[in-house]
Design goal:
Layout lengths: L7 E5 L4 E3 L5 E3 L2 E4 L4 E6 L2 E2 L6 E3 L5 E3 L14 E9 L2 E4 L3 E5 L1 E2 L9 E4 L4 E4 L4 E2 L3 E6 L2 E2 L7 E4 L3 E4 L8 E8 L4 E3 L3 E6 L7 E7 L4 E4 L4 E3 L2 E5 L3 E6 L10 E4 L3 E4 L8 E8 L6 E18 L4 E4 L4 E4 L1 E5 L3 E6 L2 E2 L6 E4 L4 E4 L8 E9 L2 E12 L9 E7 L5 E6 L10 E8 L8 E5 L5 E4 L7 E10 L2 E2 L6 E4 L10 E7 L2 E6 L10 E8 L6 E7 L4 E4 L7 E10 L2 E2 L3 E6 L1 H9 L5 H39 L7 H6 L5 H13 L14 H7 L1 H9 L59
Parallel strand pairs: 2-11, 13-22, 24-31, 32-40
Antiparallel strand pairs: 1-4, 3-8, 5-6, 5-9, 7-8, 9-10, 9-11, 12-15, 14-19, 16-17, 16-20, 18-19, 20-21, 20-22, 23-26, 25-29, 27-30, 28-29, 30-31, 31-34, 33-38, 35-36, 35-39, 37-38, 39-40, 41-42, 42-45, 43-44, 43-46, 46-47, 46-48, 49-50, 50-53, 51-52, 51-54, 54-55, 54-56
GO biological process, one term: cell-cell adhesion
InterPro entries: FN3_dom, FN3_sf, Ig-like_dom, Ig-like_dom_sf, Ig-like_fold, Ig_I-set, Ig_sub, Ig_sub2
GO cellular component, one term: membrane
Length: 751
């Protein structure tokens, strides 16, 4: 993890440490690589010179004989130390080791006297700052507290909890803080246990809840929660985000304190302590946040690479940590500065070096650092350069051909030209970064290239390389040239007639027009040679009204866009106002009030017409229904109909009307109604002759057309069937002519 470069890399790097005043200090640094290797040390970025107080050992470690936080001259041995190793391949720098002096302050929180009833809870606390973190122990009556007693709980931050108090718990308490710098004692506090255990109900109450903590992975977190109440409340823990706390590394201290060992980043969160009254939903809560930081560590190290001259070298360095680490790149121990051919991307995770040359050969380091720690990794770039490669192409020239085309020409290299297999032309907008460059390959016998599809009024840079099977030459000199300006394209023009003397010219803004300063508008009568205009319009104008025109002639309208390079092609449209005049004569202006009245009248007429139409439909339906029923015939009996004599035409109506008045329950001899098919079988001749008789139609119903439909499910009225011969001299309607004989449609039933 200290780097993957075999030429030069760290095996052991200096680590953070806490030094004791007036005691010796050793910082370790071990390097592997190709000898000779030189190791030097720096403190706060300044080179350390060997002295009586600090000097380097033979193995490369730094020895400080008497560490002092503050020296007589005001200097201090505290600070950030790193070691540097160098050989002929390059230079690497170790991670920074933070060295601090061991200290201990005075107590800033002392235990306080307390009077608590029997069965209650007592809590003492003392706090003190120190490096390293002091270990705090408690004494009762000048003797160490018995930690085997389950009712006594000692928390790492200097808290003593005593639950289920008894009379023998009374006494004098104080704490003792110890680290490598010193030992200190707090003030004393008296605990008095009064009375007997009370049976009075008390709501749950949290005396002290968890505090906010910020720790590092692998450390131990203790979240305090102490509650009182009668009956004694049950203490439980949960996470505010609902995730389970888990069981691995989790322990409960005393009656409700939560201890999490070997912290990971996943333990970060807000923890909630709840004091619950047994058997009820009565509860009190308190919460505290836990932030777990992780030092920076590499997910992907940079790899040493070898690349030919003129190519691109890419190093990738991915690190993780909490908070996310910042990445810095070094080149031979110095902070790498970006330029046109050195770029950093992806939050500095990717280092790209374009168009490398021999000066780029070095050891590159990736430093990842956050508030929890730092780490580094290194990789070497080797630039390949083969003997006998061509020299750079000569006399590179670029000439502008048009607004989108430039011709580049060159001459072959002066040396080592026999193995050339071709040339590569490198093209880039002068304002673009190096990574936007693109190339065009050219055969070895060609010494010019027409570069097309360029942008107008834009500067481009060009350089050439000659290639062999063993590598490329160095780049030629860079030449920069600009394309010509371009006049705007033709605008889209539309003409709209406003009235008999005015039209409106409109056009659409478009990026296809290119860079333009504005528009020029011309118009004229088609039979004249002279234009009116130009009318100069700004680039943001998209319409113009042309007025005071002659309605009797045709006009030509012309529009073009222009810029500093000249006028673009024009768009021409022709327009005539004569049709507008004719439409005005044929269609005079409307009388709006009159039209409104006409519209109302028309609406009323439509409504009346709808009512009339619906009424007609209803009458037609009734007409069809009664006519259909009139065609149902009924026989009184088969015997009477077979013997019925013919009667005169004048008597037929009375017979028919009399038949309709008879009782509808009359039946034939068999008690069954006769249907139409049976009548046709019995009286084929009589019914056919009957249909020919024009005067046979009842005065009460209109004649019905022939219908072969059989109706057998409805009761039939009883009728007398009379066969009648036509009159020899029929009476014709007054003032009319004899009717034509009716066609024979077959039998017709009348009722």
């Amino acid at each position: 993890d200290f780097g993957l470069s075999s030429e030069l890399a760290f095996v052991v790097e200096p680590s953070d440490d806490i030094a004791v005043q007036e005691q010796p200090l050793v910082l370790y640094c071990q390097v592997e690589g190709i000898q000779p290797i030189t190791i030097t040390w720096r403190k706060n970025g300044v080179m350390i010179v060997d002295s009586e107080n600090a000097f380097m050992l033979a193995n490369g470690s730094l020895y400080v004989s008497r560490f002092q936080r503050v020296r007589g001259d005001g200097s201090s041995d505290e600070g950030e130390y790193d070691c540097m190793a160098q050989n002929h391949y390059g230079l690497v720098v170790s991670r920074k080791a933070k060295i601090q002096a061991a200290t201990m302050s005075d107590f800033h929180i002392h235990p306080q006297n307390a009077v608590v009833e029997e069965g209650g809870v007592a809590r003492f606390q003392c706090q003190i700052h120190g490096l390293p973190e002091p270990v705090i122990l408690w004494h009762k009556n000048s003797m160490p507290v018995n930690t085997d007693n389950e009712r006594y709980t000692l928390l790492p931050k200097g808290v003593l909890q005593i639950t289920g108090l008894r009379a023998e718990d009374s006494g004098i308490f104080h704490c003792v803080a110890t680290n490598i710098a010193n030992v200190k004692f707090s003030r004393e506090a008296r605990l008095t246990v009064s009375g007997s255990h009370s049976s009075v109900y008390k709501d749950p109450m949290i005396l002290v809840g968890p505090e906010n903590l910020t720790l590092t992975v692998h450390q131990t977190a203790v979240l305090e929660c102490i509650a009182t109440g009668n009956p004694r409340p049950i203490v439980s823990w949960s996470r505010l985000d609902g995730r389970p706390i888990g069981v691995e590394g989790i322990q409960v201290l005393g009656t409700g304190n939560l201890m999490i060992s070997d912290l990971t980043v996943q333990h970060s969160g807000i923890y909630v302590c709840a004091a619950n009254k047994p058997g009820t939903r009565v509860r009190r809560t308190a919460q505290g946040s836990l932030v777990v930081q992780a030092p920076a560590e590499f997910v992907q190290h940079p790899q040493s690479i070898s690349r030919p001259v003129g190519t691109t070298a890419i190093f990738t360095c991915v690190a993780q940590g909490e908070p996310p680490p910042q990445i810095t790149w070094l080149r031979n121990g110095q902070i790498l500065e970006t330029s046109d051919h050195i770029k950093l991307k992806n939050n500095n995770s990717t280092l790209s070096i374009y168009g490398i040359n021999q000066t780029d050969e070095a050891i590159y380091q990736c430093l990842a650092e956050n508030s929890a720690g730092s780490t580094q990794a290194s990789a070497r770039l080797t630039v390949l350069w083969a003997d006998g490669l061509p020299s750079p192409p000569q006399a590179v020239r670029a000439e502008t051909v048009s607004a989108t085309t430039i011709q580049v020409s060159w001459e072959k290299p002066l040396q080592n030209t026999k193995e050339i297999i071709g040339y590569v032309l490198h093209i880039r907008k002068a304002a673009d970064p190096v990574e936007m460059e693109y190339q065009e390959a050219v055969s070895k016998s060609t010494f010019q290239q027409l570069v097309t599809d360029l942008e107008p009024s834009t500067s481009y840079s060009f350089y050439i390389k000659a290639y062999t099977s063993r590598g490329a030459s160095k780049a030629s000199e860079v030449t920069v040239v600009s394309t010509l300006g371009e006049v705007p394209a033709m605008p889209s023009l539309f003409i709209k007639v406003i009235n008999s003397t005015a039209v409106q010219a409109t056009w659409e803004p478009s990026i296809k027009l290119g860079q333009h300063e504005g528009f020029k508008l011309y118009y004229r009568k088609v039979h004249l040679s002279q234009y009116t205009g130009p009318v100069l319009l700004a680039s943001n104008v998209t319409a113009y009204n042309i007025t005071h025109l002659d309605a009797s002639v045709v006009y030509e309208v012309k529009l073009l866009a222009y810029n500093q390079h000249g006028d673009g092609d024009s768009t021409v449209r022709f327009v005539s106002l004569r049709d507008t005049v004719e439409r005005t004569v044929l269609n005079p202006p409307c009388d709006c009030m009159k039209d409104e009245q006409n519209n109302k009248t028309s609406t009323t007429g439509i409504i009346i017409g709808i009512h009339i139409g619906v009424t007609c439909i209803i009458f037609c339906i009734l007409f069809l229904m009664f006519g259909y029923r009139g065609r149902l015939l009924m026989c009184k009996n088969v015997q009477e109909q077979l013997s019925t004599p013919q009667i005169p035409r004048s008597q037929r109506s009375a017979v028919l009307n009399g038949a309709t008045r008879r009782d509808r329950d009359d039946r034939d001899l068999n008690g069954k109604p006769l249907d139409m098919n049976e009548l046709e079988r019995l009286f084929p001749a009589s019914l056919s002759q009957e249909q020919q008789d024009k005067g046979m139609t009842s005065t009460h119903s209109p004649p019905m057309p022939h219908d072969d439909t059989q109706i057998s499910t409805l009761p039939l009225d009883e009728f007398s069937i009379i066969e009648e011969q036509p009159d020899p001299l029929p009476n014709h309607p007054r003032g009319g002519s004899p009717p034509a004989p009716a066609p024979d449609y077959g039998p017709t039933n009348e009722g």
